[in-house]
Write a structure and sequence with these properties.
This protein has twelve helices and 20 strands. The chain is of the alpha/beta class. Helix 1 packs parallel to helix 7 and helix 7 crosses helix 10 (411-419). The termini are far apart.
Length: 467
């Protein structure tokens, strides 16, 4: 017989988004919650992440509102030395496990069902016992599976591979026991970058690494994403320069040139103009290190890997039976057509602030608890469509600016953001002394340039037919 369960909120997914949403419900309401997830432990895609994965933004941006992930330490002995800590995948999984066991379950208001597959009709099945249950939400169903983060371990390549080819996902790189002839890293995004940097860290000769990049990306300088007051000039100064660059741009290409010149964007190779933007970060030391790899292949997407050659859309490169081909072609967050966050009894968390999925989930939960009108909720939580091509930066940034303005007009939201640990640079702003003339001047630059930047982005959206 199917067991029927009820709770105020049923949350599907205990990854970063689901945990951040649940955290707000637990600490800002008396709601009871059912959490359903297919993994054995909370943490979502981090359960499948490669062993040497790290956050690519400071830990201060990540986790949940009520418990710090960051320790306050700075990176040491790495290519990010001096910057705020980048938590490892292992640390993140331990954080979420502790959060569930020590904070969520002891409330008595949380029921957690790991190792369960949720079905759209409200049923969910335990993968270990086969038991079927139904979960009825008295208030809302929260579907945190919409973004469905993809990782190398679970990603199916969209190209064919001969059986005798040495081919593996990034996760398996540390399992290699016999030295190959070389390495072919497939994928030009953050995962491909991580693979190349890890190989270099293991003292692999750069000449033994071939990096296949189908599209070059614009990267964010990690130094400009810091949250500590010590980095005010880098974070806030670059933000002001970003707004001024957009406001002064004559067209899309001029905008990217200005954004690169002011230090907001980086490219890996000066001679190649990027056409992709996924919002990933890189430190300047990492970029210098990656330039040691000279065998960079730009012939489009891989179509087939054989024992002696790799066929790409625009050419062929040689390989050997003993060369290791590393799959880094998964796109962590795929660009999807957004849907309304609030639809009747369904909440679909999505990014509502650029680059910050967990802050977005927490704010959506706060809006759910404090604003009863669905139209108002959706105005405050307009999805920021995930970017892919460079031109997507226009819509991505425009929506982010408009959301920020809407939040500033609502005292409940504005006050909540001022005290929420996931708000990132807000904590930096709280530390600015009224007597600090230089920092106040930077903030005035931001306030002055913001309306002009918003207007220019709106103009570009019309010029380039961006919805």
């Amino acid at each position: 017989m199917t067991e029927r369960l009820e709770a105020d909120y049923v949350i599907v997914g205990t990854g970063a988004v689901g945990m951040a949403f649940a955290d707000i419900l637990i600490h800002e309401s008396d709601a009871d919650i059912i959490l359903i997830d297919r993994y054995a432990k909370p943490g979502g895609h981090w359960n499948d992440a490669y062993p040497f994965v790290q956050l690519h933004q400071p830990a201060a941006y990540y986790g949940v509102s009520s418990r710090r992930l960051e320790t306050g330490a700075r990176e040491q002995g790495t290519l990010n030395a001096g910057l705020e800590e980048l938590s490892s995948g292992a640390a993140i999984l331990a954080y979420y496990d502790d959060l569930m066991r020590q904070d969520y379950l002891p409330t008595g208001r949380v029921r957690y069902f790991p190792m369960c597959e949720y079905h759209k009709d409200g049923h969910f099945t335990c993968k270990l016992t086969g038991q079927v249950r139904t979960a009825h939400a008295r208030r809302k169903l929260v579907d945190c599976s919409f973004l469905n983060t993809s990782v190398p371990k679970t990603h199916k390549p969209n190209f064919s591979i001969d059986e005798d080819v040495r081919f593996l996902p990034l996760n398996d790189l540390p399992t290699i026991t016999d030295a190959p002839d070389g390495f072919v890293v497939i994928g030009g995004g953050k995962t491909g970058l991580d693979a190349c940097l890890w190989l270099l860290e293991q003292r692999v000769d750069p000449d033994d690494i071939t990096w296949v990049i189908s599209r070059d990306a614009w990267w964010l300088d990690r130094e400009n994403t810091q949250t500590h007051i010590d980095f005010f000039d880098q974070t806030m100064g670059t933000q002001a320069a970003m707004m001024e660059s957009i406001a002064a741009a004559s067209d899309k290409d001029d905008m990217f040139d200005r954004l690169e010149a002011c230090g907001y964007f980086l490219r890996l190779h000066d001679e190649v103009r990027p056409t992709m933007f996924h919002g990933a970060t890189i430190s300047r030391a990492e970029r210098d290190e990656i330039l040691k790899i000279k065998n960079v292949v730009r012939m489009g997407h891989v179509q087939h890997i054989g024992s002696d050659k790799v066929t790409l859309a625009e050419g062929i490169i040689s390989t050997t039976p003993n060369t290791v081909h590393v799959d880094c072609s998964a796109s962590a967050l795929k660009a999807l057509t957004p849907r309304p966050v609030f639809e009747g009894t369904l909440i679909t968390p999505q990014m509502i602030r650029p680059f910050q999925p967990v802050f977005s989930a927490a704010l959506i939960a706060h809006v759910e608890l404090n604003f009863g009108d669905e139209a108002k909720q959706n105005i405050l939580c307009t999805p920021v469509a995930l970017p892919d091509a460079d031109i997507d930066f226009i819509r991505f940034t425009s929506t982010g600016f408009m959301n920020q303005y809407m939040w500033s007009q609502e005292p409940k939201v504005r006050d909540w953001m001022t005290h929420n640990r996931l708000s990132g640079p807000v904590s930096m702003l709280n530390e600015v002394s009224p007597d600090d003339v230089e920092k106040k001047a930077v903030l005035r630059r931001m306030r002055s340039a913001a309306p002009m930047a918003v207007a220019k982005l709106a103009e570009f959206k019309a010029t380039y037919n961006i919805d």
